[in-house]
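Final report, closing paragraph on structural work. Over the funding period we assembled a curated collection of sequence-structure pairs, and we close with a single example.
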Amino acid sequence: MESVDLWSQLAALGQVVAIDLVLAGDNAIVVGMAAAAVPLAQRRKVIFWGIGAAIILRIFFALITTQLLAIIGLTLAGGVLLLWVCWKMYRELRSHGTDEVAPDEAMDAPDATVGVSGNAAAGAAVGGVTVGAAIWQIVVADVSMSLDNVLAVAGAAKDHPTILVIGLLLSVVLMGAAANMIAHVLHKHRWIGWVGLAIITYVALDMIWRGSNEVLMHTSWLS
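Its predicted structure, as stored:
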């Protein structure tokens, strides 16, 4: 039994790491795209506050999500939300990410019109977007992406609280220290994104299955 539990924990940890890598890279790309839409002199400020907001939101959602998932029906709702995330990821992977911009690329890019798609707002000419508007655009995207990340990690960790804590801490570290590098790796090796998509889809379906059973059991118990 101990060996089975060990393998279960290792499998959960592997899923958590893969989810963290893919979603941290996606978040960095959103930050880079938004920064590329403001004048060059102001991009460093946008990148700083954009990544800072992502870290704060991850910590906030990490503190409340484990309690929220204990509420009957929210595991099911979280699984449905992750399926929507999977659909977005699938569309972005199909488009080959030709318009993706990482934060360091935004710093080096000349002042030119940059198309922004996916989780960021649709394209605008450089100089037509203020620093405040760009930061707000990132924060709005971060709310969704940070919740997606925490839900996916919680779903993959299942009944392993230690794995859950490791996964949430890792997501914060990756977003703060390595997101830019991960964004480049994902852009160069697109197959990693497909692996991440498969894992998150599996986690979403598993959450829907477990959440549906919880709702059915609770409904039958009430009746």
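The helical segments are 2-36, 43-68, 74-94, 103-108, 131-157, 161-188, 190-222. The chain has seven helices and no strands. We thank the funder for supporting this effort.
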